[in-house]
């Protein structure tokens, strides 16, 4: 274990995913990568491009799109073209099932426009067709020098692999449980498919694997075994995580355990969006998992008290929310202008009990008055009290102080 409490990072091969000048490295000693997926109809090229842009602006470093029909495959080059015109060079990952072998072969412009393919070995065909169709997809990847994620999912597990392992299990003197059989079938499907891809001609540093389930403990068990049995780059994600707090909590619980153990090279938080909710919420959650655990920094962190009987006013809650939204919305611009700003902390506290102390520990902090306290809000900059704000414009004035601090301390010299 390191002095920070993190386990040593599980050694994996580095996989490079790129488009134009945008290059994302997965695995090795590189930072854990955040990715997401659109839920638009890919045939709608402009609508899909706009959602990809939204996800990329939120911080998704790879964006996956569904390629499920000839019309969708034909739209992919136009999606890429629209993104390039908007100056959005995030690499696109094509998600293929069932007919992927035909789409990649019949639509070479699609195959070339994508930066990476995702193939589910449980959905590439049955019987004698399965190996041939899988090989066809891998051959296209090798031809265009594209990396591939071999993504096994417990809801579409390769039945031939499952049947074989069940038969083997029946011969054991101490048979495995049904859950152990399922775990082994997931892992075997992924590793055998990855080896088959290598045998066809895809290099090991072009392969990412995943084994997704929807139960937290099962996911942890599967990936712990995967890490012991291979050095392929690993994509983490709890499939069908759910909606709202349930999906956030489940994903956080599963991913945090594995990341703490040094397992995982790229993650996705697969949230079901609230009705009319933003798809980019899953990106924010993934970033916050990595940032709160100390693995990466994406945006200045806002420290805020939870509130109690001393803070019956909602002023501090509103200011904390406004500041957090402001900081996140500015990051797409700031990250190119203010090096290191993502490591800044801002404290928005609601009374005199912990307010001044917490504010002093942040780069910038404000201690708002609690119920019955003097209507004044001292501001602390790098531990020193600099000004006391009063009146109806505290929020605007504090935001200006934050902006001035960033320009002074993180501006390019």
Q: What does this protein look like?
A:
The protein folds into two domains: 15-293, Dihydropteroate synthase-like (TIM Barrel); 301-411, Sulfite Reductase Hemoprotein, domain 1 (2-Layer Sandwich), CATH 3.30.413.10. It has 413 residues and is α/β, with parallel strands linked by helices. 45% of the residues lie in helices and 18% in strands. It has helices at residues 45-58, 70-85, 100-106, 108-113, 128-143, 159-170, 178-200, 216-229, 244-260, 281-292, 315-337, 355-361, 394-410; strands at 15-19, 22-26, 33-37, 62-66, 92-96, 116-119, 148-153, 207-212, 233-236, 242-243, 266-267, 271-272, 301-304, 345-349, 364-367, 377-381, 384-389. The strands form four sheets. The chain has an eight-stranded parallel barrel, surrounded by five helices. The chain has a five-stranded mixed β-sheet with strand order 13-14-15-16-17, sandwiched between helices. Strands 1-2 form a two-stranded antiparallel sheet.
């Amino acid at each position: 274990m390191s002095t920070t409490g993190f386990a040593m990072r599980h050694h994996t091969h580095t996989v490079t995913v790129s488009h134009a000048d945008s290059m994302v490295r997965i695995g090795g000693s590189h930072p854990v990568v955040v990715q997401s997926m659109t839920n638009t109809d890919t045939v709608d090229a402009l609508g899909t491009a706009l959602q990809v842009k939204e996800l990329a602006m939120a911080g998704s470093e790879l964006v996956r799109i569904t390629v499920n029909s000839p019309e969708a495959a034909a739209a992919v080059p136009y999606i890429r073209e629209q993104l390039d015109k908007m100056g959005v060079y995030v690499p696109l990952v094509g998600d293929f099932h069932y007919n992927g072998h035909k789409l990649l072969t019949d639509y070479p412009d699609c195959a070339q426009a994508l930066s990476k393919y995702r193939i589910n070995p449980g959905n590439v065909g049955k019987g004698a067709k399965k190996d041939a169709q899988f090989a066809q997809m891998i051959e296209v990847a090798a031809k265009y020098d594209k990396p591939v994620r071999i993504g096994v999912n417990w809801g579409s597990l390769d039945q031939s692999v499952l049947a074989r392992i069940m038969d083997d299990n029946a011969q054991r003197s101490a048979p495995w449980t049904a859950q152990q059989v399922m775990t082994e079938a997931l892992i075997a499907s992924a590793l055998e498919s990855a080896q088959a891809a290598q045998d066809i001609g895809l290099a090991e540093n072009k392969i990412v694997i995943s084994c997704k389930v929807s139960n937290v403990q099962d996911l942890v068990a599967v990936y712990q075994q995967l890490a012991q049995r291979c050095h392929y780059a690993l994509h983490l994600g709890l499939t069908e995580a759910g909606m709202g707090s349930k999906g956030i909590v489940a994903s956080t619980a599963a991913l945090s355990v594995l990341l703490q153990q040094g397992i995982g090279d790229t993650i996705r938080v697969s949230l079901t969006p609230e009705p009319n909710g933003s798809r980019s919420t899953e990106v924010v959650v993934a970033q916050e998992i990595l940032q709160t655990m100390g693995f990466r920094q994406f945006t200045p962190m806002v420290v805020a008290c939870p509130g109690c009987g001393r803070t019956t006013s909602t002023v501090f809650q509103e200011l904390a929310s406004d500041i957090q939204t402001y900081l996140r919305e500015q990051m797409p611009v700031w990250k190119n202008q203010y090096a290191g700003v993502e490591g800044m902390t801002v404290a928005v506290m609601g009374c005199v009990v912990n307010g001044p102390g917490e504010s002093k520990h942040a780069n910038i902090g404000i201690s708002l008055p609690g119920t019955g306290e003097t209507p004044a809000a001292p501001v602390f900059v790098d531990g020193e009290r600099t000004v006391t704000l009063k009146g109806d414009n505290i929020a605007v004035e504090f935001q200006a102080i934050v902006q001035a601090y960033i320009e002074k301390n993180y501006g390019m010299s």
